[in-house]
């Protein structure tokens, strides 16, 4: 039986993971709403796997340029690689020569292959310090070794995401509802799409150390998909998604620091808890409170109640 002093010591020892859990849950949940409602799940999957290629590049560059051999520069290089891959996927698919899902699949596989190849090359190079990354932790996450710097960077990223969404809230809703109509009415859809891709890439890079490249996609999809079953209003979906994301990641961190869960990677614990919430909500909606066939979607309901909210006086 754990004493109270032992409990306090455990909390103090894991103070950074306990702080960073709700932060990453919040910012993933915010982005998740757009990922789900704009059907960008495949894009988020492709960007998350591109991070593996970014890590490989960062590790190899750090061998030749020692000032880059630290966690902050690895995140910067990985983030740039993810954003570049996301824009390349969009550019290739926009030219209509390759379908969007094919472009994503191609870049996803190529990024993982590049990452694995660069890491293998780095291992075979003579001299220098041991390779600074653990492949298993890259794939499944590592909450235990979260530092004060990781927590600070996650907090700054979450603040940037919240500010961007708050400043462009109605424009994001408009392009989510009808991107073509938004473009006709003068909304800079290309810029908004670029900002959204940058937010997705930034969130993935910030969260991947804690959750892992294979698991991060779940945080980008499950909160928004679950929240979409709970509310008919866009604002309600946002609030529900944030609550689900924060609850799921906080509970997962608490579990991951105590035996026997402390012996396993934290990423799968986060995903399974979020999946459990999704399954409960789905079962409730399906068996106990089925949604009427003609019930409007969250976006349709928002537009009907706020016909002038999306700029340029346009209404549906």
Descriptive notes:
The chain is mainly α. The chain has one domain: ABC transporter involved in vitamin B12 uptake, BtuC. 75% of the residues lie in helices and 0% in strands. Helix 2 crosses helix 11 (216-227). The chain is globular. The N and C termini lie far apart (62 Å).
Topology:
Layout: H1 4-13, H2 15-37, H3 41-64, H4 71-94, H5 100-124, H6 135-140, H7 148-167, H8 169-177, H9 179-184, H10 189-211, H11 216-227, H12 234-256, H13 266-288, H14 298-305
Helix pairs in contact: 2-7, 2-10, 2-11, 2-12, 3-4, 3-5, 3-10, 3-11, 4-5, 4-10, 7-10, 11-12, 11-13, 12-13, 12-14
| SS-derived structural category | mainly alpha
Output the CATH class name: Mainly Alpha
Total domain count:
1
CATH superfamily annotation? ABC transporter involved in vitamin B12 uptake, BtuC
Give the helix proportion (percent range). over 70%
**Residues in β-strands, percent:** under 5%
Mean pLDDT reading:
81
Largest sheet: none
Instruction: Tell the overall outline.
Output: globular
Radius of gyration: 21 Å
Order of helices and strands: HHHHHHHHHHHHHH
* Tally of separate helices: 14
CATH architecture grouping: Orthogonal Bundle
- List segments where confidence is low: pLDDT < 50 over at least 5 consecutive residues: 303-316
At the fold tier of CATH, the topology name is ABC transporter involved in vitamin B12 uptake, BtuC
**Straight-line distance between termini:** 62 Å
SS elements, strand count: 0
Characteristics:
single chain, 316 residues, mainly alpha, ABC transporter involved in vitamin B12 uptake, BtuC, 14 helices, 75% helix, globular
């Amino acid at each position: 039986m754990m004493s109270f002093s032992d409990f306090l010591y455990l909390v103090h020892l894991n103070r950074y993971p306990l702080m960073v859990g709700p932060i990453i849950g919040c910012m993933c949940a915010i982005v998740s709403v757009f990922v789900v409602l704009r059907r960008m799940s495949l894009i988020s999957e492709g960007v998350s796997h591109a991070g593996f290629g970014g890590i490989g590049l960062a590790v190899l560059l750090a061998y030749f340029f020692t000032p880059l051999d630290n966690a902050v520069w690895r995140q910067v290089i990985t983030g740039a690689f993810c954003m570049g891959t996301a824009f390349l996927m969009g550019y290739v698919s926009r030219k209509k020569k390759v379908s969007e899902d094919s472009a994503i699949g191609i870049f996803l596989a190529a990024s993982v292959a590049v990452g694995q190849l660069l890491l293998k090359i780095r291992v075979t190079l003579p001299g220098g310090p041991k390779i600074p990354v653990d492949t298993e932790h890259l794939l499944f996450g590592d909450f235990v070794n979260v530092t004060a710097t990781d927590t600070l960077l996650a907090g700054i990223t979450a603040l940037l995401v919240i500010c961007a969404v708050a400043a462009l809230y109605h424009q994001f809703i408009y392009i989510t509802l009808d991107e073509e109509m938004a473009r006709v009415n003068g909304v800079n859809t290309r810029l908004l799409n670029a900002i959204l891709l940058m937010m997705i890439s930034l969130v993935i890079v910030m969260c991947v150390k804690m959750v892992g490249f294979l698991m991060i996609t779940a945080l980008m999809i499950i909160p928004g998909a679950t929240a979409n079953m709970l509310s008919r209003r866009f604002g309600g979906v946002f609030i529900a998604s944030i609550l689900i994301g924060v609850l799921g990641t906080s509970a997962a961190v608490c579990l991951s620091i105590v035996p026997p869960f402390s012996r396993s990677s934290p990423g799968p614990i986060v995903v399974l808890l979020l999946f459990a919430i999704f399954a409960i909500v789905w079962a409730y909606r399906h068996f106990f409170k089925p949604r009427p066939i003609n019930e409007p979607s969250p976006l349709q309901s928002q537009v009907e109640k706020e016909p002038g909210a999306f700029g340029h006086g346009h209404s549906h």
